[in-house]
Amino acid sequence: MEHGFRSDLPIYSQLVQRLRQDIVSGALPPGTRLNSVRDLAADAGVNPNTMQRALQELERDELVYTQRTSGRFVTEDVTIIARSRALIAKEEIRSFLAAMHLLGYQRQEIYQLLQEEKEEQE
Amino acid sequence: MSGILECRGLCKRYGAMAALDDINLSIEPGRVVGLLGPNGSGKTTLIKLCNGLLTPTSGELLILGERPGALTKAVVSYLPDRVTLPEWMSARQIMDFYADFYADFQRDKAKDMLTRFGLNEQMKIKQMSKGMREKLQLILTMSREASLYLLDEPIGGVDPATRDYILETIIRNYNPEAAVIISTHLIADVEAALDEVIFINNGHIVLQSAVDTIRDEHGKSVDAYFREVFKC
């Protein structure tokens, strides 16, 4: 059982974030059958109705679909996954830039720092 | 209304002191509800009214449309806030006892949980540690196919690993037809497992709300919000 929920956000939206991340990173590959709501809830240490709500949100985003008799699956449509991944990446970059601006860095300096970091790693 | 538990104008007085005053609430099937409040706020009184250990001074309390009595005891599974198991019995004997008393007792489920909790059914209760007794009592309570589970401080005296396991057990036993009421003051530990919370103070309901609604509206956990509401 895993804890570590942030206290300032609803639990269901944090579950959506986690599951979405697992899908776009490939930890849950396209077409994977998901465990039952109850098992997913027990593993995450959350209320089953909260988990259900998170899965419904992923269904609305078409990252997950339900097959009436056989359960819930990760979408096989890789373009939907790629689109979601690009969206998350964009959000991450924006929040990184916002944090750097708070430190007083201008855009040009940030690009330079990134370049330096890249060269260091190479 | 078709709640599992309905309270209307429920009062419980001890002489001049009102332990519960004009309680109105409804608990729907499929809900896991946290009953939260400081010590002496009326949590245990409410639970004891639900299982018929106390009778209301006035007002009404209905479980599936019935006043607490023999009919409701068959569908209510109660975990007291202290261990009440007879010391001379073994785990196996207490399971026999439960099977005799409760038609909805699932022995296979109980045995399975005993194994998972690392308890031996030959062991006598007097040989068990406090933590083991609490686990056994929880297993017995959760092994019934009840409509209403009343858990009074289920995670009070156990270590954090056991606490996780107890919560997981409650979640794995989730039944959309049944409701679970968990009274506790260890809010942070149970928060994620709950649908909704009831804040109770001085015998009054201060708030009944969904966990994620509180987080959404106040931008803080139920635990943090509770500390704010009940600031000393």
Can you tell me about this structure?
The complex is a heterodimer of chains A (122) and B (232). Chain A is mainly alpha-helical and 122 residues long. Chain A folds into two domains: 11-76, Arc Repressor Mutant, subunit A; 79-121. Helix content of chain A is 62%, strand content 7%. Chain A has five helices and two strands; from the N terminus they run H-H-H-E-E-H-H. Chain A has helices spanning 11-25, 37-44, 48-60, 78-102, 107-121; strands at 64-67, 71-74. A two-stranded antiparallel ribbon of chain A has the order 1-2. In chain A, strand 1 (64-67) and strand 2 (71-74) form a beta hairpin. In chain A, helix 1 (11-25) packs across helix 4 and helix 2 (37-44) crosses helix 3 (48-60). The longest helix of chain A has 25 residues, at 78-102. The N and C termini of chain A lie far apart (39 Å). Chain B is an alpha/beta fold and 232 residues long. In chain B, the strands form two sheets. Chain B has a six-stranded mixed β-sheet, sandwiched between helices. A three-stranded antiparallel β-sheet of chain B has the order 2-1-4, covered by helices on one side.
